[in-house]
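This section describes the prediction task in plain terms. A model, or a person checking by hand, is given the sequence of a single protein chain and must write out its three-dimensional structure as a string of tokens. No templates, partner chains or ligands are provided. The sample shown here is typical of the held-out split.
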Amino acid sequence: MKRRANMSCLFTQSTEPISSNLVPVKITLLHDNQNRNYTDISIEAIREAEPSLKNKPILAYIRKDENGEYDFAGHEIEITLTDNGIKETYLERPVGIIPESTRVEYTSKDGKIYVSCTGYIYKDYSNETLELIEKTNGKCVSVELAVNEGYSDVDNIFHITKFDYLGITILSDDITPGMDENCRLELFGNLDDYKEFINKAKADVYSFEKEEYNAEENNTEEEPQKTENEDTTEDKKPIEDTDIEESNNINTQELDLSIFKDLFETNINSLEVLKGLFISRINELEKKLSVLEKYRNDNEYSKREIEVKNILEKFSIDEDSVVEIKEKVLSFEATLEDFEKELYVIIGKNALKNNKKQNFSFKGINLNNTEKNREKEKLYNGLLDNILGCK
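The expected answer:
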């Protein structure tokens, strides 16, 4: 099983900027056990997921409110309709990173264990991010999780037993989180969208931390060797001299198809199976779309029938004479305006045709014979007065 969930916790700037591009921050991620969203995460699952926290992006979407003030938003999605269907665009942008050397800490408070880590805000991408953090003395963040395993108990509490970290989004103060005033569950974007940023940020973090270590080695006097009983957790460890170009391999390990189990409600063990399931789902959606289109067309046809009937009632006309144009209007090949114009044309033609029948012959009529003129006048009810000169 694989789900995506977001746990929102406190985000604070830890010190003043220490390089031109990087500002260190401390992030309280989540706590163990149950939260307000009826989700429970064991401390064992949290510790097991710790390695996946490295090299994950810190994201934010900054917007103006109605008063013209800047603030963070949340997981902002823009939905557009394209020729290929519905397109979802995730509007958050990378503003920082949790580096390979992040320091993860566990703190016990009020019967819960909280998890925190260190990271950097990447100033070139951050816009007003640092200013907002400084102004409010910290922000909430939503931690996106890829839930690999879990189960629901009889109380409808979902227990997350295995997960990976995917990314962190800085949230607005107006968004109420679900975990200790700081967390909530939510679906959002794709980590792959930020690989390019992560690789660039990793290179900068690597360069900065290596320079900091070398400077410390050069400027620090030789310290006495510590005994076995002394705490060495704060000792600085050199960063392994590896080729940064290899960072392009991040997250290119074997595909984890279990993320689709929830969507299709079945286990998926190959791309071929996944392809078949997607094709089947698309076919199902096309069938549903076909039903909806038929329903819409039936409604439109019924409405058009009523409109055609109302127009026909304005004219005294044999409907058999307008079958062809009527069918075109009902099939939306012709407009109602075209239909009405055609009816006027038919009425006009019929009137001319009737007049020609009444004036069937003028041959042999003596226009100077007034008696015959009168007979014609009576015969044609005065229709030929002007033609025959009868007044």
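For orientation: The chain is about 35% helix and 25% strand.
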